[in-house]
UniProtKB/TrEMBL annotation:
SUPFAM superfamilies: Winged helix' DNA-binding domain (SSF46785). It holds the Pfam family HTH_HVO_0163_N. The lineage of its organism: Archaea, Methanobacteriati, Methanobacteriota, Stenosarchaea group, Halobacteria. Residues 2-71 form the HVO-0163 N-terminal HTH domain. It comes from Haloplanus vescus. It comes from the Archaea. InterPro entries: HTH_HVO_0163_N, WH-like_DNA-bd_sf, WH_DNA-bd_sf. This is HVO-0163 N-terminal HTH domain-containing protein.
C-alpha cells in the first residue's frame, strides 16, 4: 500500500466520520489525489464511505450503519451539544434544551430532526401533546461521543449559525 493510503487509513481510524474536505485539509492532499486513493481504499474494503446531509464521511469497516450515521451527525457541534445535554440532564423539553444551549428553537429543531432521523433522539409526547426529548440508545450514544470531536471549520459554521440566530431573534 502506498504511503498516502497508509496515512489516510490511519487518519480515518483515529478520526472516524471525518468528512472528505477535512481529510484533504488534515493530510494536505489535493482533491484528485485524495479521490483516487479513497477509491482504491474503498475497493480494497479498507475504508467505508457514508454520505449524509451533503457530506461524505469515512470510516474503517468495523463500524455498522447506525454507528456511521450517528457519528456523522454528532460531528456537528450543535448536534453534539444537544446529545451531551441529554446525556447529562436526561429527558428534557425542547425549550429547556434550547435555553441551556442558547440557541434558537428553529436551530434546535433542525438538529433534533437529524438526530431523530438517525435514531439518536426520540421525541416523546405526553397525554397533553407536550414533547420531551430523550436519547434513544443512551449507552451506545455516550460511547460514540468519545470518538468524535468536531473540526474547527464545523465549529465555526455552527457558531456562526448561533450568532445569526441570536441576532435574528433580538
Amino acid at each position: 500500500m502506498s504511503h498516502h493510503r497508509d496515512r489516510i487509513v490511519s487518519h480515518v481510524d483515529t478520526h472516524p466520520g471525518v468528512h472528505f474536505n477535512e481529510l484533504g485539509r488534515e493530510l494536505d492532499l489535493a482533491t484528485g489525489q485524495l479521490q483516487y486513493h479513497l477509491g482504491e481504499l474503498r475497493r480494497a474494503d479498507r475504508v467505508v464511505a457514508e454520505s449524509l446531509y451533503g457530506r461524505t464521511h469515512y470510516y474503517t469497516p468495523e463500524y455498522d450503519e447506525w454507528e456511521r450515521t450517528a457519528v456523522a451527525v454528532v460531528r456537528r457541534e450543535t448536534a453534539r451539544d444537544v446529545v451531551l445535554y441529554l446525556v447529562e440532564s436526561g429527558p428534557s423539553s425542547p425549550t429547556a434544551v434550547a435555553d441551556a444551549l442558547d440557541i434558537a428553537r428553529s436551530t434546535l429543531e433542525w438538529h433534533v430532526g437529524h438526530l431523530h432521523e438517525q435514531a439518536l433522539v426520540e421525541k416523546r409526547r405526553d397525554e397533553r401533546g407536550r414533547v420531551t426529548l430523550a436519547l434513544a440508545a443512551p449507552e451506545e450514544t455516550a460511547a460514540l461521543l468519545r470518538l468524535v470531536e468536531p473540526s474547527v471549520p464545523d465549529r465555526l459554521l455552527d457558531r456562526f449559525t448561533r450568532l445569526v440566530d441570536n441576532l435574528v431573534s433580538e
